[in-house]
Design goal:
heterodimer; A: alpha/beta; Arc Repressor Mutant, subunit A; 2 domains; 8-stranded mixed beta sheet; 3-stranded antiparallel beta sheet; 14 helices; about 40% helix; globular; B: alpha+beta; 8-stranded antiparallel beta sheet; 6-stranded mixed beta sheet
Chain lengths: ~375, ~600
Amino acid sequence: MHIPFCLSKCSYCDFYSLPTDDAELFDQYSSCLVEELTRRAADYRLPFASIYLGGGTPSLLAPKHIERIIDTIYKCYQAGNDPEITLEVNPATVDRQDLEDFRRVGINRLSIGVQSFINRELKILGRMHDSQQASQCIDWSHQAGFDNVSVDLIYGIPGQNKEDWLASLIQAVNHEPQHISTYLLQLEPDVPLARRIVSGALAMLNDKEESDLYYLARDYLLEADYQHYELSNYAHRDRKSQHNMGYWGVCPYLGVGVGAVSFDGRQRSMNSPPLVEYLIALSHSVLPRRQILETMGRREQLSEALVMGLRLMEGIEPGALCRRFGKDIWRPFQVTIDRLASQGLLVVEPDRVYLPPQVYFISNAVFREFVD
Amino acid sequence: MQERIRNFSIIAHIDHGKSTLADRLLQITGALTAREMREQFLDKMDLEREKGITIKLQPVRLNYTARNGQTYILNLIDTPGHVDFAYEVSRSLAACEGALLVVDASQGIEAQTLANVYMAMDMNLEIIGVVNKIDLPGAEPETVKQEMENVLGLDQSEIISISAKLGIGIEDVLEAIVERIPPPKADLQGEMRALIFDSYFDAYKGAISYIRMDSGELRKGDIIRMMSSGKDFEVTEIGVLSPFMTAVESLKAGEVGYLAAAIKNVTDTKVGDTITLAANPARQPLEGYQEVKPVVFCGLYPLENNDFERLRDALEKLKLNDSSLVYEPESSDALGLGFRCGFLGLLHLEIVKERLEREYDLTLMATAPSVIYRLILTDGTEISVRNPSHWPDAQRIGQVMEPFVKASIMVPNEYVGPIMELCQEKRGQFINMEYLTPHRVVLSYSLPLAEILVDFFDGLKSRTRGYASLDYDMRGYEASDLVKLDIMLNGETVDALSTICHKDKAYYRARALVERLRRIIPRQLYEVAIQASIGNRVIARESVKAMRKDVLAKCYGGDITRKKKLLEKQKEGKKRMKQIGRVEVPRDAFMSVMEIDGDKKS
């Protein structure tokens, strides 16, 4: 579920979101989400395994909004077994009471956008909170009773050295979150931070430095008893993100909200911006316009299953894919797998194929070989 | 009727406004309506319009009613202005009785123009001097006229001042053509003879020849004979270009037009050949053209190995439009099957490569251009080497000779110093210097052709702010101390990257070369060692460090389509690379080994 509002845009963000704090707009948008959920229910009969409220800054919505949304989902859709319900939280937007309320209305997992515990870095990133607020937010979430909390961290920030990165990692681990995501700062050309780079005011790290930070995080988090289960994600005691596991397993999903993408196993489509069109449509009980992003044939579906599946450290199961897609479609991919294995870019075991760790940070070299 | 035909060419340096003048002539004589008018009409190829130069001449017929009330047929045969295409100028001139010499009013005569005017004078053509661009701020038409009189002996008072751009003086030019250029000496009664001065391949009509009728008359349906091969063909269409193809029933002596005869085989219409009638053949062919000999060679290879046959077909077709192109199959360990092609110069090479890629949808790799070297081996045999990878081992070589040219460089005298420096760097030997006017000189140097190929033109341009012009003639072979420079990638010699260079420059070149390759070879999964060697001795080395980062940090539901597109785009980029051993090399790397010297200055 996409909530396209933020108090202000971060300097590195190119997602669809609008800076606003207009409570009335949040009200109206929540109603539209409810309306969309209700109207689409007929087409989505599978039980859901997870709900993810992302953005933007979904924690800008009031608990009562979230409550209506979750209630609607339970009313109109069939729930799977103990679904994971995640809310993305910006530490600048919540207090302890909010977190307690979120938990009360059904949220059972938080993904907290900490990004860094170093104020200089938070400033560069254009975050509205400081390190102290981020710490407090994690503490509150535990106090509110959340036992499944994820912390997002960013590395590759201009000026960041190994010590800085390690300091953020240590602070994160000290708060004992169940899950940590570490994201390399990768800028689209039109975001504000990219312009500061182009102007020469700031410099990105070089490839080697970024690679070193990546493997530093991996070494440290493995040591701290986190499982590295996806290129950028770590889980403690197997608390992987169920929702994201669905993406990497190429499962179908329903996207709700403006800019949200849905996938039925074959086709991806997006609720087209702009926001105003979305609001008007649903206020008049019309489903928002959907724009088809891609339609895949069998071969492309398999190609995607490989590219997404190999992001997981456990890799893919060739036997299962071969059975699912048929020998004829599978065969050329097997040839590619064998070639990559002979170059040391893949590890092939009888029932699994996966990336060796030294390839993680150059994994596009592998993924490229599976796309057309 | 023949009395009212005028056949003429335009001789001009690049940018002196020849094509603009041609456009004006077309417009003023009503050959083109305003709607059909587009800039540089006679520059048929897109390539020509893009580069702003004329490569390929296209004849055109104009009807002009002169001030004396008579209507004349003016056949304009456009000419290329670049030194590479001097032979096409000579072809055009052979079909004419006169030539317009167009000179830029602020630039003065250029070396290449001078050479072409001398050629026209040798062929007894009437020269009409025209000073163009008199509207420009820096124009000095009187000085330029003075120069034309001093250098070429034209009568200043007969030189016409015009601005082709603004349409000033165009009628005076047309009147001069009518009054001063003689009509063709046409023998209407004699045996039919026509000279093929150009030809091209048309997918529907077969080979189309541009012809200049010398004597007799040619009709549609006639059986013609190619005098060089003796082959006969039935004429399916003849016509004139006014400027679009317009079919006519017959062409008479003195006229210029085109001919189609369902000629399928591209080699059957040889430029310079004489056409006669099979029923009443002429005894003597017309004086043809000297066959042009290519001086620059390079290997052209399809990026996709299975495009080899398509490349062969494309070369065959192109050869019809371009008789100076020669090619023979060759193979390279690094690049697979391809052709060693011969060209008149670098521009010619570039144009052929671009046309092959555009018109025949091929993706090509070109190796570094090379001249033909003559080697006397220690066992006394003499061999020619036009592909550096065929260079024998040093111990088998007795003597090496390379082609030299006599270069004439025309330049304002304040630039003599920089030009002399350039020529010295290029291993030139001074011949002499002559004053054309108190301010302009011609410097003559003997230079290795190979040195002119590298970046001589760029050097001239940058050191004289564009005021120098160059012309050159082949002089013959002279002994030189040359060596073969090899490039190794991860220890494997890449034959397609070998070049020949002078011993004294080998170290510098080797350094520049490995440095350049280091910059253009992208990072790969493994470190790539780049070495330059002479024989077994490595004289320069660099390395491309292994790739460290190539990752998509985030890949979630809303973003998957976009991330996959990114991967596809990256893969597309890879396809433009050539895999050599384990190393992926950009396809233009092979050509770029020649651009070394240019790097240093820029």
